[in-house]
Structure prediction request, 942 residues.
Amino acid sequence: MQQGIMELMWRSSHVSGANAHYVEALFEQYLDDPGAVPDEWRSYFDELPRPEGGASEDVPLSPVRDQFYQLGQETRPGGAVPDSDAGKKQVKVLQLINAYRFRGHQKANIDPLGLRDPTPVPDLDLSFHQLSKDDLDTEFQTGSFFLGMDKAPLRDIVDALERTYCRSIGCEVMHIVDTEEKRWLQRRFESVRSAPKFSDDARRHVLERLSAAEGLENYLAAKYPGTKRFGLEGGETFIPMMDELIQRAGGYGAKEIVIGMAHRGRLNLLINILGKNPTDLIDEFDGKKVFDRGSGDVKYHQGFSSNVMSPGGEVHLALSFNPSHLEIVAPVVVGSVRARQDRRQDPGGEKVLPINIHGDASFAGQGVVMETFQMSQTRAYRTGGTVHVVINNQIGFTMSHPLDARSTEYCTDIAKMVQAPIFHVNGDDPDAVIHATQVALDYRQQFKKDVVIDLVCYRRRGHNEADEPSGTQPMMYAKIKDHPSARALYVERLVKQGVVDEDDISAMVEKYREDLMAGNHVANALVQKPNESLFVNWQPYIGHEWTGYADTTFDMQRLQLLAERMCTIPEGLVVQRQVEKVYADRRKMQAGELAINWGFGETLAYATLLDQGHPVRITGQDSGRGTFSHRHAVVHNQEDGSTCVPLQNISDGQPSFTIHDSFLSEEAVLAFEYGYATTAPNDLVIWEAQFGDFSNGAQVMIDQFISSGETKWGRLCGLTMLLPHGYEGQGPEHSSARLERFLQLCAENNMQVCVPTTPAQIFHLLRRQVIRPLRKPLVVMTPKSLLRHKEAISNLDDLANGEFHMVMPDQAELTPNAVTRVVLCAGKVYYDLAAWRVENERYDTAIIRIEQLYPFAREALRDVLNVYPNIEDIVWCQEEPLNQGAWYSSQHHMRAVADMLRDGLGGKLKFAGRLASAAPAAGYMSVHTEQQRRLVEDAFNL
Prediction:
């Protein structure tokens, strides 16, 4: 032991054999937070021996106690035992400091209405730590608590702790494991007692923004009384908060900020921050049509974009469109941000910032919030941290009691799962709100992680302006009725402090109202002539009418060269045996020695798109390998676990090929990829379900974004969904991708639903999705057993010189005049039908595959059917039960085409398939096999 340290221990009277309990407590403090003990103790504890391979928290206390006992015996003069009372109290003071850091937020004044049930916090009482008022004038070491001095009277320490942790900001940071992050946050709050001194100009600016927030709500309330607008009254400090976030982010060098929020306060944000013209909002209130095509949407779901000026230059703001499904927009936002970061080559998130704004009840209640937090640090989805703002109205719709809203103390407790710091702040204290906002953004920039601001406020007018909230919350609204606004309270404070006078206040209010009445922009940093280079250029993709055709041919020599490169694995990489067989076969396919299977055709489509300058992004729960081991785009070294992705190395300067196995989420991951695709029109963006039925877990995204985003918001999206689908006896949950649900959502050429059955078809379908300038979501029912079916093959010429056939003619050599029956089908059942026909020599029947079920290719089907002049019967055959699959949604198309051939022929259309069923498929192989046999026979014999 260093002699200096031992002398220091002795002089302080903190160490002797009689003070073992003090040492033990101090050591426990060190294990919890090394920064919480004085430097000289930390240095000593750092040098203590550790059990071999053990972490610091695993150090047994008994050897430490014995070591200090021995040290005390060696260092005390004459064996005398000094008084240990001071040492014990010193430990208690350090424990008191830590108690404030852990639990001060429970005592903090964060509720403007004072409705928060007071939680007894015994840890914050002196008596809990065996301290008393008699100790208030005694000096103690402050440890790591930032007080500006190493020692101070207990009275000053407690006063500083109260001001830091128990006033308008309640800090929750002690759940963070990383000591550096925790100490950084403690220093930011403790150094200014959570109340920095802002300049008079800064505070006048905050007042001006508060006046704008309140001014808009007052104006709309007077002009449109009782009309829904989901106003911001009670949470007006949200506007100066957002203003500070954006300006500070711009100062850091951010070029784009993407914002997601539900409807409360959205109109205020649009007008006062993003700079939407008030005249346009008034037109929407007056019911004027502002969207030329499609259904449009209510005004508080609309998105918007603009540019504002910041200390660091121009910043592009994008407010995402959002339906009433509240939190679902959160992963859409981070997906859009990731696309922008990838475009800017900004992996650290320095230039593009996501801000997600939540409601308290939905933040606690909706699982997509947890999923979005869980993705925040994963390789496929990280964005350098999201700033989360909870507009905490302390009420969910008409439910106000926390016991009904959640099972946790705070609505924000879900954020602790990723160790995000949480700042609860009183919405009636704008200075505290600005400070919490600054620290939150600085933390995100410093550590590249999520952070949460819990803006505790209230709803002055209830859930919406047509409600009478006192009917369900009489006590809350009795308080709200007499509660002054945040602006009124701030005005009173600033007048007392001489920052503003009555003339200043009147001028602010009057100018804002004049600007509103005149239809002037009221976002004070708005750029009137924005820098368009900050935008995503969608111009080449706008205004195209539906077409099913695109030239997807590809030069044969170049195709073979790309195939060779995508089959090249670096020397020394030890490949697993089955994977080596996959790549060996692909090399034969490239040389024309072996027929092309699905995995080769699909992967070669990606190679050709990359070669033509289109980035490709694929995520899903087994995307690297493919759920059914058909893709193997990621090759794993069997010796060291390293990976190789051949598609990332097919040419110099190629665009990115990104493929990640996602975490086990459907809703958040699909939402992320939708957000990505709406921001990256030149990319092929794919989400692949492990099994097609797993898309059920993302139904909100399919219903409210993918299928209807264009008609509601004019939002184009080329997202592709690969959904394994097919009846192979795997039971109800792994047979059907619920084709019927997608077809039910189809109208106005809103999306494509395809069921390709050959490698060439998937090759051209994926290429068509990007090469054609039309941007529509693509839903693909992909196969399982067909991935290796001996008949589901193509050749190189099919790929190089073919196209995607929306309707596939019969491939058999039939005599057209002899055909009297046509069986129409889609997907895997074609191969069962074709095998039955050969086995039973039924060459009077043609089998035609409809590979694109929507938009339904009527003309293409008519052209194929015209080959057969003697058709008497038409049968639709499907594997799915009668009430599922394509039958109900597509039969009218088939009947219409049949009637084009001969009047009345459409009326003869028959159905062959499983009986109507509540479940998608049978759970027993024997039942499945019998059903499959019967439906195939019915197709020929009905």
